[in-house]
Design a protein that fits this description.
This protein is an alpha/beta fold. The chain is built from nine helices and nine strands. Bound molecules: S-adenosylmethionine (SAM).
């Protein structure tokens, strides 16, 4: 954890979101990535392959936005910087090492943004009794005529995570659960509103094994939000033993949608024709 502590000191996060622990959370992911690199390799490779495949299908390649790019483990940055005129890496926190990596490419820009658009307001109202929780309606890039591709990269399930922890003890469970679900739905709707092609890569469920045996039902990590059938799925060995306990392994199922708008359209058509 020493490397992560140093990186923590060298990184800065926006004041408003700092108290929610985004930077510490990033450093925990960085540390786990270092410990589990070998077990995460297949997931990282699949994610990068999917991004490059979608990028290759874009007829115009002016600007690409990678949402949740923060740690850059799963972003094929060099290849994307050759394929597109501009690469926008979007995250609420860009750790120091990511900033150093991004500086190597003249057409790569780091965009620090809260992709829910609701975290500042959440901190403002959370402790005010009786006040409604904010509505998430992100609008970054929605009017950008140069945006040809956006990929949401292993971000979706993370959007409600820290807000959920932050609200613990401040609001009742059903209110927190409804807010977490709302953050997920708002992101999916945002991917439909953005110009250009949009793609989604996200974990959808989590399975815990004890000594090789599945011990509990597959846990939905998307808070009850149903997605269309994915184009591709794979397993991510997120926590190999003894990461969270001796003999315990956690596998997440990851789903990929190379064309999110089309996937939603097809799902809506099926619902209408039913
Ligand atoms: C699991 S990581 C995604 C994987 C990451 N691309 C990597 O290379 O390891 C989730 C990312 O979502 C970011 N994130 C979480 N909530 C966010 C928000 N409200 N706005 C923008 N980024 C957010 C985190 O900072 C983190 O970098």
């Amino acid at each position: 954890m020493i490397l992560e502590f140093l990186e923590y000191l060298l990184s800065s996060s926006s004041k408003s979101c700092g108290s929610m622990g985004f930077l510490s959370s990033s450093m925990r992911v960085r540390a786990r990535f270092r410990r589990c690199k070998r077990f995460w390799a297949a997931h990282i490779e699949k994610t990068q392959e999917t991004i490059l495949e979608v990028a290759g299908q874009c007829p115009r390649r002016r600007r690409v936005a990678l949402l949740g790019a923060g740690l850059l483990h799963d972003i094929p940055l060099e290849k994307l910087s050759k394929m597109f005129e501009e690469v926008m890496l979007v995250d609420i926190v860009h750790p120091w090492l990511s900033r150093v990596s991004a500086r190597r490419f003249r057409n790569v820009t780091l965009v620090r943004a809260d992709l829910t658009g609701a975290m500042e307001e959440l901190q403002r109202v959370a402790r005010l009794p009786g006040s409604a929780l904010p509505v998430s309606r992100p609008d970054l890039f929605v009017n950008d005529p140069r945006l040809d591709l956006t990929v949401s990269v292993n971000l979706l399930s993370q959007l409600p995570h820290l807000p959920g922890e932050y609200l613990e003890g401040l609001r009742d469970e059903p209110t927190v659960a409804a807010f977490q679900k709302h953050l997920i739905e708002a992101h999916l709707e945002y991917l439909q509103r953005l110009p250009g092609r949009t793609a989604l890569i996200t974990d959808i469920s989590s399975r815990r094994l004890e000594r090789g045996e599945t011990v509990a039902q597959e846990r939905d990590v998307l808070h009850g939000v149903r997605l269309p059938p994915p184009e591709l799925t794979w397993q991510w060995h997120l926590a190999p033993s003894p990461e969270i306990g001796r003999g315990i392994d956690v596998y997440n199922t990851v789903a990929a949608y190379g064309n999110w708008k089309k996937a939603v359209e097809q799902m809506n058509l099926k619902t209408i024709n039913r």
